[in-house]
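[Automated response] Your request has been received and processed.

Submitted sequence:
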Amino acid sequence: MKKVAIIGATGSIGTQALDVIRQHPEEFEVVGLTAQSRVEELRQSIGEFRPKKAAIYSKTHRDMLQGDIHDISISYGDEGLLEVAVDSGADIVVMAVIGSAGILPTIEALKAGKDVVIANKETLVAAGELVTEIARTHGSQLIPVDSEHSAIFQALSGQSLEDVERLIITASGGAFRHNTREEMAALTAADALKHPNWEMGAKITIDSATLMNKGFEVMEAHWLFNVPYERIDVLVHEESLIHSVVEYHDGSMMAQLGAPDMRVAIQYALHHPRRLKSDFKRLDWREVATMHFAAPDMERFPCLAYAYEAGKAGGTLPAALNGANEVANARFREGKIGFLDIEKTIAHVMEKHTNITSPTLEDILSADLEAVRTAEVFIQQGL
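Generated structure:
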């Protein structure tokens, strides 16, 4: 039986991970749970799964939970996340928090010899070189859970990376895939949050609409599979049935297909290389009339180009990209800036950033914070 801790248990990935575990109680034991602020959801999950440790971000929320729950240790803040990631007795840590908050728990879990099922994009975007080196040094495994990286992970099973010609990451195109620039300028967060294919958290859904999410996935793929950026392509595939493709030197292509359901990737990540049975929706070929493919339009969606630029530059520029995007994404969701102002803010921060080419963890975290400050000032000053 595998012991699992979930960092970000009340978010989209966290709740779906719990659903997978709920369906296979003989395979998994939940030993740690954390949440940002959803007290009642965390309380219910603690009651159902009875972990050894739990954490929530604020002390006030911790006190609310601890007042009702006396037999489980509940901590709070960044230290609480670290405690659950490292000291809950987990074999596997599901890193499902959003943003740079996932960097330190991921690093500490890897240093403690845990395998990390990683759904936190920002960790590999901002600190990919550092994190992957820590995983190698400590004999820990980074297991992808994004559908695209899970597809590559599965298509590479039993194969050699030396035989790989390129990776092809598919993209739905997001909510605005058919809109002109003029139309996008007038669209709101409510419009962007209507993702055509996937059920995801709000931040990732907006990133999908800008194609920054796909840019992040290119950067993740670079670090997860050690493939140069020049050999990682993005292909818009509206139906989201092919989740990614690996092309080999001999011209063969291996694609992983399935209905759009994150639980399939989560379940595989938790139990690979064996596959567990499930009642998840199957892809019915009789219902697949056509599949469409197109190259991404980086003029309409420049955030994808920014991600390639930052990834190839390396150093602290990816952290600056991430910090700027977090701010711009949040302010768009709050209605404080327009959709096209997201890319404008990111471009401004990248231009102002002084890149450190061989950064320490402190350099990376500092670059992220400085990018946040620069983006906030830029927005406050009216862009």
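Summary generated for your ticket: Residues 361-380 form the longest helix (20 residues). The chain has a mean pLDDT of 93.
If you did not submit this request, please reply to this message.
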